[in-house]
Amino acid sequence: MASIVPSTTQRDAARIRWVREILGTPHVQLQRASTDAGFRSYWRTQERGPSRILMDSPPELEDVRPWLRIHRLLTDGGIRVPEVLACDTDSGFLLLEDLGGPTLAKILNEQNADMYFDAAIDQLLRLQAITPPADLGVFDETLLHRDAGLFETWFLCRHLGLELNDDDHFLLRHVQNELTANALAQPFVLTHRDFMPRNLMPVPDGPAVLDFQDCVRGPIGYDPISLFKDAFLSWPLPRVDAWLAHYHARATRSGLPLPPLPRFRQDADWLGIQRHLKILGIFSRLHYRDGKVGYLPDAPRFIAYLDEILPRYATLRPLAEWLDRRVKPAMRYVATNRIS
């Protein structure tokens, strides 16, 4: 028999009851701290003394145990992550330390970006030095093709309403095959898969790393390009190139298995292209399937990323021409004519 998802009212009551029992405080209240792109939600305790964060991960929708497993792996590897104060895996409740204010994405600016990114690289190098468990998921061909399908199904077809012809399918398959071959040829390390400022908290001994439950064994260039080519914050390309070179120098000194810088830059660029296409699909799915309307307005950011990188590589220029011919006109039409 399929599991029955509790009503919102039932979940609210279970959440407050659990935190009051754990803290031994019958009058503690909870205030929404943030929502997650998945099914988790976060709540800040309102009481005298230090606040905590309750992570609510309904077990019928999102099992908390993978999060806890990766939390232990990262903690053992010296990564700054939120401390777990109490947990109930069967109910999907965790009580975490409250790391305080906004994420790194909210405080980065022209003046402090070098400092904060250098601190983020500290954490990333520690993460990439951790030996992935033998049974951890792998950033393999299956996962890459699944990601490619998100772009086609949700962004091209659902959002833009494009009807793809045989030439379109041939081009997309060719591009994805090139990107997949590049990804699979790279050295593989522990990979966060969303190592970006929105998932980093600027605490003194950090930044602390969040949203790490989807770690896999994957290509070494994926997390660096995710950090500097953010889903919500853009930087000039020369600055991104300089940060990638800085990461490469530090990672090489630390003993990570990196190719020479020119090859690494291409590897990172191509992983960035794969990621940008995937995120266009994810943001469209969040909008249409999950009713989360705050993501699609960032779609032009990813087209701009593609516009600045694709001309570097002759093999991928057909994709740039196809975006100009098929995708950008459809985006302009949707922006002008569609309300929701």
What topology does this entry show?
Blueprint: H1 8-23, E1 29-35, E2 41-46, E3 52-56, H2 65-76, E4 84-88, E5 93-97, H3 104-107, H4 113-129, H5 141-159, H6 166-184, E6 188-191, E7 200-201, E8 208-209, E9 216-219, H7 222-228, H8 237-253, H9 261-288, H10 299-309, H11 317-337
Helix pairs in contact: 4-7, 4-8, 5-9, 6-9, 7-9, 8-9, 9-10
Description:
- It is a single chain.
- This protein folds into two domains: 8-97, 2-Layer Sandwich (Phosphorylase Kinase, domain 1); 104-337, Alpha-Beta Complex (Aminoglycoside 3'-phosphotransferase, Chain: A, domain 2).
- The protein is globular and about 65 Å long.
- It has helices spanning 8-23, 65-76, 104-107, 113-129, 141-159, 166-184, 222-228, 237-253, 261-288, 299-309, 317-337; strands spanning 29-35, 41-46, 52-56, 84-88, 93-97, 188-191, 200-201, 208-209, 216-219.
- The two termini are 36 Å apart.
- A hairpin with a 6-residue loop joins strand 7 and strand 8 (208-209).
- The strands form three sheets. A five-stranded antiparallel beta sheet has the order 1-2-3-5-4, with helices on one face.
- 34% of the residues are buried.
- Helix 4 runs antiparallel to helix 7 (222-228) and helix 7 packs across helix 9.
- With 340 residues, it is of the alpha+beta class.
- The longest helix has 28 residues, at 261-288.
- It contains eleven helices and nine strands.
- The model is unreliable at 1-5 (pLDDT under 50).
